[in-house]
Amino acid sequence: AIVLGNGMVRPLMKLMRFQTQIREILDGVKRMQPVLSMREGRAKTRQTLTSSAVQLSGISVSYGNRRVLSEVSFAIPAGRVTALVGPSGAGKSTIASLLGGLVEPDQGRILVGDCPLADIDNVQRTATIAVVAQDAFLFRGTLLSNLKLGRPDAGEDQIRQALRVAQAEAFVDALPKGWHTHVGERGLTLSGGERQRLAVARALLANTPVLVLDESTAFADSRTEKYFYEALHRTYPALTVLTIAHRLYSVKDATNIVVLDHGSVVASGDHASLMQTCTLYRQMWQAQAPQQSGSVNQTRPAVLPG
Ligand code: ATP
Hints:
By secondary structure, this protein is an alpha/beta fold. Helices cover 40% and strands 21% of the residues. The protein has 10 helices and 12 strands. The strands form 3 sheets. A 6-stranded mixed β-sheet has the order 6-9-10-3-11-12, with helices on both faces. A hairpin with a 2-residue loop joins β1 and β2. α5 (156-165) crosses α7 (192-205) and α9 (271-277) crosses α10. The N and C termini lie far apart (72 Å). The structure holds adenosine-5'-triphosphate.
């Protein structure tokens, strides 16, 4: 048996901690590898964006030889909320992945202003479009370090503002150490909804002109979800938002609702016109009606931007 002197224990423990950190960094790099290699080989440049409006034109995407998006075209106007709705498996999250640079189209193009998304480098894309994925991921560290990832110089007021809009302020303040609480390994375990709220706050804090929310407001009920959109517009009026929404009631007031089915856009418009012209939208609305009726009457009128 090897007996360690007192003086050796501490450096050894330090070494072991260091090893764990290296393993975590390598895991992170491994996760990024497909994205990085996908983007290699094509010269990417910095571009000046003329507008935060996003236009998808003739986008097709396949996973292996299975096509999941077919010639999808629609506009996401600047400074407004556009809702993307459709049955499960329609391809909604694939559109979020495209905008996040995790998936590349087989054909078609995405413009931000008049700049093709494919031509801008990863750093500029990340500074232009923030995507909050369904499974919000938090890194080991404090809540604060997680929040400040996209904006290390964020001030306390900006952090509070983002937390408030994301409806995370109350639960963070209720923690004994507030936003200095550790999360992850041996730290606080957060519920899925709490993680989602923090991920939304982190994306807001990153201050990108475009925000994509993939079922990111599922933490809220219909009523608080509406308050979220009101607060979002009031606090960040210039933000261009694409929200993938399961609950149609929460995006009912958007003037731009895009209906996706089996990888194709089947209709777009506002709620009233879609109820008249789109059978699928009407069926989805009717299927959700029993869940919505409970909160409709209690909800104060909310106006969605756009
Ligand atoms: P949901 O509302 O259930 O989240 P969705 O409309 O967001 O569904 P996507 O997640 O975009 O749909 O999936 C579209 C289709 O592509 C589905 O049939 C799905 O099984 C398939 N798919 C998604 N990601 C992958 C992947 N990485 N590899 C292979 N197939 C995938």
